[in-house]
């Protein structure tokens, strides 16, 4: 019973022992990827000592305070879905954060999202997950308005519902005393080039793409050479099989 209680306490708070046993690393600074899902964690403990951490999955726990994450300057992917988080303020210093999942928490105010505005590399943020029925009190429309979201990526049904909600909100503001109010000075929401796909500035992706093309080119050359050798071999073998003719 005592050993079981100690194990549960370890899981309630993240300790160096838990991190090392989960990752197999001897040094917390060597941990790059960490998955601690559904462990009943409510205290992030020494997570902030994993200063080189790039990907962190803490979904399905009881976390409320994100303060230890403030020191994770290299964190690019963070999954906090299905927790009890109400404030994202500590994430303000996670400068390279690109993907954030906070669906299924208790983020109730639009002010709690202001800290994310300064994260220039943030590309994806999830506040709602229909697959697991995770939501937040704050709406997607408020999130888009605050963070100036340019694109919505996800399932078609989610996008359709979002567009429908936006249209309903707009239409509700067009009527006054039951009459449709016409606005002669209406302007397009965005410029014509707004929805054009922008080329990625990620140097790593560009280099990987270049290397892939080089390897693909070499494979094509090898394939051509192999085809040529096989053709010559087949021609040589067919000549050897022909019956010899003798002149009398």
UniProtKB/TrEMBL annotation:
PROSITE patterns: LRR. Keywords: Leucine-rich repeat, Repeat. It comes from the Eukaryota. The keyword Iron does not apply. It holds the Pfam family LRR_4. One of its GO terms (biological process) is outer dynein arm assembly. GO terms for cellular component: cytoplasm. PANTHER family: LEUCINE RICH REPEAT PROTEIN, LEUCINE-RICH REPEAT-CONTAINING PROTEIN 61. This is Leucine rich repeat containing 61.
């Amino acid at each position: 019973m005592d050993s079981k209680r100690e194990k549960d306490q370890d899981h309630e708070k993240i300790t160096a022992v838990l991190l090392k046993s989960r990752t197999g690393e001897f040094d917390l600074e060597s941990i790059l990827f960490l998955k601690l899902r559904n462990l009943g964690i409510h205290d992030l403990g020494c997570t902030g000592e994993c200063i080189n951490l790039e990907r962190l999955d803490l979904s399905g726990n009881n976390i409320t305070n994100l303060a230890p994450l403030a020191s994770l300057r290299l964190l690019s992917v963070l999954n906090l879905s299905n927790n009890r988080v109400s404030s994202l303020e500590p994430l303000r210093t996670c400068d390279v954060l690109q993907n954030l999942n906070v669906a299924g928490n208790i983020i109730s105010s639009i002010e709690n999202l202001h800290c994310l505005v300064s994260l220039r590399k943030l590309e994806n943020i999830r506040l709602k997950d229909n697959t697991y029925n995770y939501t937040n009190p704050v709406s997607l429309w408020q999130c888009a308005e605050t963070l100036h979201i340019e694109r919505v990526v996800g399932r078609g049904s989610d996008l359709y519902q979002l567009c429908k909600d936006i249209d309903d909100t707009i239409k509700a503001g067009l009527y006054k005393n039951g009459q449709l109010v016409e606005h002669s000075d209406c302007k397009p929401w965005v410029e014509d080039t707004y929805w054009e796909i922008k080329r990625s500035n990620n140097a790593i992706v560009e280099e990987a793409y270049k290397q892939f093309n080089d390897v693909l080119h070499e494979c094509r050359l090898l394939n051509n050479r192999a085809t040529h050798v096989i053709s010559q071999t087949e021609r040589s073998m067919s000549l050897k099989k022909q019956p010899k003719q003798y002149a009398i």
